Amino acid sequence: MRPFELTAPATVEEALATPGTFLAGGTTLVDLMKLDVLTPEHVLDINAVPLRGIDTTDGLRFGALERMSDIAAHPGVYPAISRALLLSASQQLRNMASIGGNILQRTRCSYFRDVAMPCNKRVPGSGCSAIAGANRMHAILGTSDACVATHASDVAVALVALDARLRLADATGTREVALGEFYHLPGDTPAVENDLRPGELITEVLVPRLDWAANSTYVKVRDRQSYEFALCSAAVALDVRDGIVADARIAAGGVGTVPWRLPGVEAALRGGPATQAAFEEAAAVAADGAAPLSGNGFKVPLLKRTIVRALLELTEGSSR
User: In 56-191, at which residue ranges do the beta strands (DSSP E only) sit?
Assistant: First the structure.
């Protein structure tokens, strides 16, 4: 790790007035600093900044510094969000990591984290080692010739499915942006991962009220049961009335370069029966546009099966 200057602002205004890299839980930033992937000269420890609070009175509001474990355990948090958090990392990391930091975490692509290897996210124009390399964990959706790295966050998948928004602040004021629009596809500029502007800070995560989001879940398929990133995941909320799907929200993780919303699957479900056959038919379009690599073609059928599994979980097996 290279030398850096550390300061600890006490207010949002102080934090925004000083150029530097924000530190919350540090569970991603410190790791990348140790690897020399990130080498900030000035780090701002913002843990004293008043960006906490969980409000479930009308939709959900999380202060950006709320810890993952506290949100997961809070009554009134939609099950898809709570479960996505509980299936993330280890208990120790969940106790440290903030919701804002989790949303901004960097990819776990091994080539991004190895400064000896070419990586367009880390060094634009250097190349993508994963395309012809070890790519079993990599994306099949939203990829480009410049980058095939998956987005690592579990909870971001659930938040995108539930139409979450971010409140952002800089020295000039605040703005809101839909989380699904906040993330950028890699295209020719994979180093530009999101819409966060220089000097800007996430202050709140906002999830609109959705009465039937109580019927939601997050299914995560991975190589081992704990402390492992998703091969594929699905966040699903389902509104079933008299055996018919009235509405649905679905997004997938582990398969896209960003949390991957699936409006085609949602549309295919609406108005149809809540049966396994109907779920399988709707999930058949989930991988449309996929571009599998040499080592991850299995993610195409896995994505479809993961979605069906989540839908069946919500209908309590009645469609079997």
Answer: 60-63, 165-170, 173-178
